[in-house]
Amino acid sequence: MSSITLIGTGNMARTIGTLAVAGGNTVEVMGRDQSKADALAKTLGGDTTTGRWGAVPAGDIVITALLYDGVVPVVAEYADALAGKVVVDISNPFNATFDGLAHSEETSIAQEVAKVAPAGASVVKAFNTIFRNVLEKGRPDVFVAGDNARAKADVAAFVESLGLRPLDVGGLRMAHWLEGMGVVTVGLAGNGVGHWDFALGANEFTG
Fold first, then answer.
1. pLDDT per residue over 21-79, tens digit each?
2. What is the dihedral of CA 96, 97, 102, 107, to 10 degrees?
C-alpha cells in the first residue's frame, strides 16, 4: 500500500482520503488551518495523522487537493520539503464561464508546478477529469500524466488500491489536454449528458 499526504482540507481531500483509508493506505493531512486538518483526520479515521503546514510530508505521494490558483504557490512555499516526493496535481483551471481554461498558453497547472518543485520531486497529473460525487460512489478510470515512469507507477498502484483503473496518457505535457478534458466533462454535464453522475473513460474493443 501507499503512504500519502493530502495538502488541503476540502471536499476532494475528504473524498480521496476516505478511499485511501478504505484501501489500506497510510494517510496524513496538512492544512493551513490546523483545526480543519485535525478535524478531517478524525473524520477519515483509521491511523490518519496530521502534519504541520510547510513541514516535510510523511507521505511518499503528496496530493495537492487545492483550488488551481493555490497549487503552484503552495508547492513553491513547501519548496525543499517536497524533495524526493511524488506531487500529484488534481486541479482544473477553469475560466470564469467554465467553457475554457484560465491559462491561455499550452501549459497546465502540473507543468507550472514542475517549474517550481525542488530537484528530485516528480509531478503527476491525475484525478482531474472525475467529479467528486462520481469518485465517492463510482469506479471511474483515472487518467495519469507525468514524465517519470516510476512516479506514475507509484500513483497507478495507489489508484488501484482505491479500486479504480489508472490509465497512463503519456508525459507531463499531456496534462494540458487532461485539463481540457475537465472542461469537456463540464460541457457534457450541462448539455449532452445533462447531469453530473458520469465520468470519461476508455472502452476497449477487440476482434
1. 999 999 999 999 999 999 999 999 999 999 999 999 999 999 999 999 999 999 999 99
2. 160
Residue 190, number of CB atoms within 10 A of its CB:
13
The DSSP result for 22-66, as a single string, is HTT-EEEEE-SSHHHHHHHHHHH-TT-EE--TTSPPSSSEEEE-S
**Residues pairing with 7 in the sheet:** 30, 64
Instruction: Find residue 126's DSSP bridge partners.
Output: 144
> Using an 8 Å Cβ cutoff, are 49 and 58 in contact?
yes
Q: Please name the residues in contact with 65: beta carbons below 8 A apart, sequence gap of 6 or more.
A: 6, 7, 8, 9, 10, 12, 13, 16, 90
The phi, psi pair for 69, rounded to 5°, reads -75, -10
Instruction: State residue 195 phi and psi, 5-degree precision.
Output: -155, 180
